[in-house]
Structures are given as C-alpha cells and as structure tokens.
Amino acid sequence: MSQRQELPPVHEAWLPREHPLHRPRHGRRQLTALVCALLFFSTPAVTWLFGARAEPLENRPLAPFPSITEGWGFFTGLGPWAADHLPFRRDAVHSVDALSRGLFGEPARLDGGAHAPPISGGQTDAEPQLDESAFPSVIEGDQGWLYLGHDISYKCLPRRDLDQVIAGLRRWRQVVEASGREFQLVIAPDKSTVYPEHLPDEYAGQNCAREAGEEFWRRVPAATGAVDMRAELRSLAERNGRPIYHAIDTHWTHEGGIAMTYRLAERLRPGVTGTWTLEPSRRYEHSADIPDQLGQDRTVDIQAYALAPDGGGDNTRFVPSDFHEPLRLDSPTKPGMVEAPTRMIGDSFTQFASPYLAAAFQDLAIVHPETVAEDTAATGALLAEGEVVVMELSERFVAGGRYDLLDPAVADRIGAVLAAHPVP
User: What residues make up the domain containing 362?
Assistant: First the structure.
C-alpha cells in the first residue's frame, strides 16, 4: 500500500520550477491582462491630472466614481466609470463610425446592438422576444432625421407597467393637493410621437413601441390629468412653417418650451397671457445630443425669443442648468406674471422653456426628476416653499416606467414634508 503524498506546506508558486506541483503565480496571459486592466482603470485618473476631461456621449450623466462603502459594488462600478471617463472617447467613436460607413456603408455598432439589423415588427407573442441589445441607440430616419433609440426601447422594455405608472402619478397629485397646493403635470411627447413620418420603414421594436405609445396616450392624460400637448405642438409647427422638434436633437425647439409656458400660465391664471408679447431675439448654435452618440460634433440652429408679460421690455433670463442642483429664477413683479410661488420638477425639455418660465413666473425653482428620488428630504423642503407644484416629464421615461419618482413611496415621503407645511 503506497503512502499518501502530502501537499507541500508552501504556496505552489513558491516551489522550485522543476517541482511537479509548481504553478506560476501569474502566467504571461494573466500578467498581460493585469497590465491592461491597470492601464484601463488608471488612464482616466492620470489624464484628469493633466487637464483632460471626459464629455458625455449619451443622454445621461457620466457614471460616477463608485463609493468604497458599496462593498463589491465598488468593483463592479469601476468598469462603467472608467469607460465613461476615458479621454478622447468622442474622437474614437467618431473614427469607428466613419470607418464603418466608408467601408461597409452602414453605421458602426458602437453599443453592442446599437445599430442591430432591423426587426420587422415589435415584441409580440408571435415574434421573438427582444432584449436591450436588439435596440439601436440611434435610429436614422429619412431626410437626415435622427431619433433617440430610447424612444422605442423604453416602451418595449418597461421597468413598470402602465398601471404602476398611473398609480405613481396619481399619488403625486394626491399628496400635493392634500397639502393645499395646486398640481400641474405635463408630459413632453417624444419626437418619434410627434413626427413618426420620418422614422424608417422598419426598425427594432416598431410594433411594441407603437402599441405602448397608443395605450399610453389613451390612458395616462385621462387617468392623471396630465397635459397632452401633441396636437398643440403640431398645430403650432404648421402655423410657423417649421418643425417644432430638431431633426438631429431629441428635444423640442424654443417654440415648444414657449408653448408649455403659455399652457401652464393659462391653467394657473386663465387669461394672464392676454398682455404677453413675443418677438424673435437672438440666434445661436447649440450642440445636438443625438449625433454625440455617433461620435459626431454637430449643432442645431436655435431661434430664441423675447417674452414680455406686460407687453413692454424683454423679461427672459437664460441661465444654463441641468437642474440636478435646483435652479432658482426670481424676477421682479410685472403685470401679466404668475405671482404664486411655483416649484417645478423638470428634465431636459424644461431647459428649452426655462428662459420663458423665468419671464412669466415671479418666484420659480426647478429641480431634476433624478434629484427628487435621490434626496426626498431636500426636495420636499424645496417644494414646500411653493403654492404650486409643476411636474414636466418626458414621455419615454414615463411610458417606460424609468423615473424612480414613479414609486408611490417617493411621493409619500415628499408628501409627508408638504403635509407638515400646508398651504392655507
């Protein structure tokens, strides 16, 4: 009977190379992988020290550096942070896309399924199930029109069903009105909703997005009291003789922001806009958001306006902000203004309305929907300052159930703050 061989009392990497159990701690491939990983994660930090700054390519903020308090989440969060903050990322994306178009006549697939082949129809029982990789980040339509892919994917792959979305919005109205405040809700329609005629004949998710959009607009305004501006926007565009959404940007033009301002003011003080005068003012170039995702630096021509609520001098104020830090816009009182202190939850569509809201509202503060859910205590305190609470939300995020503030628990926490400071 052979004697059992005992394992050596040292790590296998420390054994002599001729030992049958010797295993190197790091083979050549492992060492190469470690060096590449080190370069990947350290490059953003090193280049930052020398002044390089990353810019967002997508319609979202750059991924933040993970906190050490997140446990294993710190390590899983390093990848997205490093990818977002790599220097010269925009130039690399642009080069890859240009090469793909030049050689193959099609845009590059920059995000896995960013430009996946079209799938006829959408997510139905008779067709294959779609996942995130099947949807394009950019949908290229005719006449040079570009659409944000999230217009489609969020509706086909919602995080909350429509009943939950409606329940969340109704809960917001309940807690705000229970505190004695007025509540106004505006849904900014997607560009693909207002101008579907420029979409390609076939694209991934076209059926499921269309069906979800139709159900959304059939149910949500009636169930929540949300303002439906679709017909008004098309009518205004026809009168002006130009589209009310930018062909290569996902947002409406300043005319869309002005239309929302007029609509809100009339709902709060009927007839108040009777003294308003509106005249074209400056023109300027604005960086378009959709081409950024293709690594392209393209601009749209912006026509701004001068709004005088009393019919006199221009009262607009252009203050750049993404509203993640609340933006306060206080204006001297003039005839024709809404005087009630107003607090607003608004996203990027409100950026194209804020100059005119500042002209028309005497006491206004705006905060981003993401900030609302992240800091309910501070948001509750901000909203409690007002007598009116306005909420502007984008269709794609609401229809896809993507806003965290749609959780009724968020409304309840803020509602508790409002209830503690009621309006008589």
Answer: 159-194+211-420
Q: Determine the 3-state secondary structure of 138 from DSSP.
A: strand
Q: Is residue 18 part of a domain?
A: no
**Residue 280 shares a structural domain with residue 403:** yes
Task: Kindly state whether residues 95 and 167 are assigned to the same domain.
Answer: no
Question: Is 118 within 8 Å of 124 (Cβ atoms)?
Answer: no
Q: Taking all residues of the chain, what is their mean pLDDT, rounded to a whole number? A: 84
Question: Into how many domains does the chain fold?
Answer: 2
Is residue 271 assigned to a domain? yes
User: Over the stretch 124-183, which tens digit does the pLDDT of each residue have?
Assistant: 444 456 788 889 899 999 999 999 999 999 999 999 999 999 999 999 999 999 999 999
Q: Domain for residue 173, yes or no? A: yes
